[in-house]
């Protein structure tokens, strides 16, 4: 897949999260902003009941009826990804692994994505996708613990249906768990709309960028528990032993994602 990168998707993301626009032709796209470019555009006829493509896609679901979730990933930025120039994405399945989790049978599918610009790989990424059994027990809804006030240095994001919808639109993601409340409750058994894994990862990367992270970076992250739209989203980033340690929690203090951003320049 190849396209000339335009500023439009980056501007849309900047408006969505109210984050600073970089100089896209000089410094390139910040960490994870490549997710708004080089998108798959599956045919409507190829979408399955959950809104994800079931054929002519990488990865294809392991079996019909499995519940797809974004579990984590590892991203390396190896050079600037500049707007105004063409870029190419290559994607392959690296591994498929069956595991038994607390919530039931899990199939982890790891995909690798390389973005090439001007003859060199500038983004090298692995994404961990997990497929739950339809019959598995969904993650428990949060208990009504008291709210934990937003501390200094934390970033509170209002997770509203419009935020989730606009993020889905920006990534051309038709997965119904993010916008179809009847489907998510009646079919997948969750108590609310699910906040995208990529949105939480991006918020963590942006929290690190606010602290000055930039250049060639490695970002490893995990989605550890589902975050529903009525639970808020609070992001933090702080200096750790090995880089910038980031996390997402809900407004009651339950952790939903963790990650570490490291500089690749020593
Ligand atoms: C992932 C879930 C199902 C595991 O659920 P669990 O609690 O049953 O698992 P576990 O008992 O903690 O662990 C079982 C095994 O899985 C591994 N494992 C456990 N977690 C991970 C992880 N994150 N990444 C990689 N491996 C993981 C873990 O290390 C262990 O391996 P082992 O047996 O070898 O020791 C559970 O933690 C969960 O629900 N996490 C939140 C997922 C989420 O909310 N994602 C975002 C929304 S979905 C989305 O954005 C989608 C999108 C954008 O539309 C899209 O389709 O592209």
TrEMBL record:
Q: What class of enzyme is it?
A: lyase
Per UniProt, the keywords (alphabetical) are: Lyase
Q: What is its EC number?
A: 4.2.1.153
The identity of this protein, by name, is: 3-methylfumaryl-CoA hydratase
One GO molecular-function entry: (3R)-hydroxyacyl-[acyl-carrier-protein] dehydratase activity
Q: Name one Pfam family in it.
A: FAS1_DH_region
Q: Which InterPro entries match?
A: FAS1-like_DH_region (IPR039569), HotDog_dom_sf (IPR029069), Mitochondrial_HTD2 (IPR052741)
Which residues are in the FAS1-like dehydratase domain?
59-124
């Amino acid at each position: 897949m190849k396209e000339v990168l335009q500023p439009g998707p980056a501007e849309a993301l900047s408006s969505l999260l109210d984050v600073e626009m970089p100089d896209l032709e000089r410094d390139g796209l910040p960490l994870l902003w490549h997710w708004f470019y080089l998108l798959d555009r599956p045919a409507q006829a190829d979408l399955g009941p959950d809104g994800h493509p079931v054929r002519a896609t990488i990865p294809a679901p392991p079996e019909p009826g499995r519940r797809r979730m974004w579990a984590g990933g590892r991203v390396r930025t190896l050079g600037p990804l500049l707007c105004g120039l063409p870029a190419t994405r290559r994607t392959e399945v690296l591994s498929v692994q069956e595991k038994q989790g607390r919530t039931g049978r899990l199939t982890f599918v790891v995909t690798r994505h390389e973005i090439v610009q001007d003859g060199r790989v500038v983004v090298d990424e692995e994404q961990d996708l997990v497929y739950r059994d339809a019959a598995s027990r969904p993650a428990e809804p949060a208990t009504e613990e008291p709210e934990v006030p937003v501390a200094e240095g934390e970033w509170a994001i209002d997770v509203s249906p419009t935020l989730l919808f606009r993020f889905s639109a920006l990534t051309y993601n038709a997965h119904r768990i993010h916008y179809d409340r009847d489907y998510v409750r009646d079919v997948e058994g969750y108590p609310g709309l699910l906040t995208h894994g990529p949105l939480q990862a991006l918020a963590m990367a942006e929290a690190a960028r606010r602290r000055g992270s930039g250049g060639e970076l490695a970002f490893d992250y995990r989605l550890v528990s589902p975050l529903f739209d009525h639970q808020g989203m609070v992001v933090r980033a702080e200096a750790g032993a090995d880089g910038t340690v980031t996390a997402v929690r809900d407004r009651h203090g339950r952790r939903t994602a963790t990650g570490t951003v490291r500089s690749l320049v020593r």
